[in-house]
């Protein structure tokens, strides 16, 4: 298994994975637009303030991770925010999540970020507590959603 920066040739495979991500998430009833996901991926590849990683084994992509560098809304300090992370269910027993988060932290440090945020909102929090604590993250509070 390798974690590497995504390439243009990876986009279609990642868009296919994104369908699975949405079907598992709180957003499963929302309309899905493959072209919008494709556009997001192309922008992530072209933007120096974006990180776009894939997890690959035997030439098959089975996961992706995306993050953004941004300034705080109240000042100029840089922080990194995880945008997306998905790993196919059959590949979740390994170290992919840990490796994604380690690469994310390396990237954030190289870009002088003062904080990094990871918010796995599509699945239940308890699945992430032990991993995040082991990697030095602090629980900052829940996120709530309401369907209208």
Q: What order do the helices and strands come in, and which of them pair?
A:
Elements: E1 2-5, H1 11-24, H2 34-46, E2 50-57, E3 60-71, E4 78-87, H3 96-110, E5 115-117, H4 129-134
Parallel strand pairs: 4-5
Antiparallel strand pairs: 1-2, 2-3, 3-4
Helix pairs in contact: 1-2
Explain what you see.
The chain is α+β, with helices and mostly antiparallel strands. It has a single domain, classed as Aminopeptidase (3-Layer(aba) Sandwich), CATH 3.40.630.30. Helices cover 32% and strands 25% of the residues. The chain has helices spanning 11-24, 34-46, 96-110, 129-134; strands spanning 2-5, 50-57, 60-71, 78-87, 115-117. Strands 1-2-3-4-5 form a five-stranded mixed beta sheet, sandwiched between helices. Strand 4 (78-87), helix 3 and strand 5 form a beta-alpha-beta unit. Helix 1 (11-24) crosses helix 2. The mean pLDDT is 88.
Q: Tally the helices.
A: 4
The average pLDDT is 88
First-residue to last-residue Cα separation? 41 Å
Assigned CATH superfamily: Gcn5-related N-acetyltransferase (GNAT)
Shape assignment: globular
**CATH fold naming:** Aminopeptidase
Kindly provide the name of the CATH class. Answer: Alpha Beta
Summing up helix and strand content along with how strands pair, one would put the structural category as: alpha+beta
What is the radius of gyration computed over CA atoms, rounded to a whole number of angstroms? 15 Å
Q: Characterize the biggest β-sheet.
A: 5 strands, mixed
């Amino acid at each position: 298994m390798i974690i590497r920066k995504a390439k243009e040739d990876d986009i279609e495979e990642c868009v296919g994975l994104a369908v699975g991500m949405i079907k598992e998430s709180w957003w499963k009833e929302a309309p899905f637009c493959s072209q919008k996901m494709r556009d997001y991926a192309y922008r992530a590849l072209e933007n120096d303030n974006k990180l776009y990683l894939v997890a690959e084994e035997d030439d098959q992509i089975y996961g992706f991770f995306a993050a953004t560098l941004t300034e705080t809304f109240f000042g100029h300090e840089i922080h990194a925010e995880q945008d997306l992370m998905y790993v196919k269910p059959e590949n979740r027993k390994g170290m992919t999540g840990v490796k994604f988060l380690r690469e994310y932290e390396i990237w954030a440090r190289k870009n002088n970020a003062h904080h990094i945020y990871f918010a796995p909102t599509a699945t239940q929090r308890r699945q992430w507590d032990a991993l995040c604590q082991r990697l030095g993250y602090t629980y900052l509070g829940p996120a709530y959603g309401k369907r209208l």
